User: Fold these one by one.
Assistant:
Number 1:
Amino acid sequence: MSANNNIGLNAAGNTEIIGSNLSADADQNYSGDVNISAGEDVLIAESYESVNSATSNTEGTATLSVSVTNQVVEVAKAYENLEAADEQFKEIKEDYRQNLWP
């Protein structure tokens, strides 16, 4: 807290000033007062830096399955499926002709 002249703090109960700078002569002209009045106690104390840290670890396992296939095998399977579909189409076409012209 800074002021060019006076600082006045009044409290009905306790007054605590912890880790603060009070300057009643901010303009550095050598005048100004800090007045503190309390109905009970006045505490002026320095502050301390503290650091709290927490760490946590999580452990687990995972399973990865990898399947590697040869593209030639896949193409051969696709060709077989295409031949089977072509054969089925021919059968359906023949059945349709027989039912259309008995």
Number 2:
Amino acid sequence: MIKRFMEDLRSHPLILSVDQRFLAGIPFLYVQSIQTWQEISRLITQTADRLVMDTSLHYELIYVRTFKHNHVYRFRFLYPLAKSFCCGKQCGEDCVLRNPPQV
């Protein structure tokens, strides 16, 4: 998912470059653009919305800072915490076999 997200951002004409870096285990997006951080935030949101549509994924986008034309965001895709498979241990309340997930 993140690979497709990065490809979509890199192909956008308003973005000069985009890079993902991990600092202390936290993913950050470094976006170089002459646009304002608000416009880039809107573009990132539109791109992520399009990718997570019709899936159970969500995302988190937090603006961090801007230096010259480099915008930094904390960005990550969030996967659902509910069990999505059967472990075979007859868990009880959250057993996927006994209680199939509601769609």
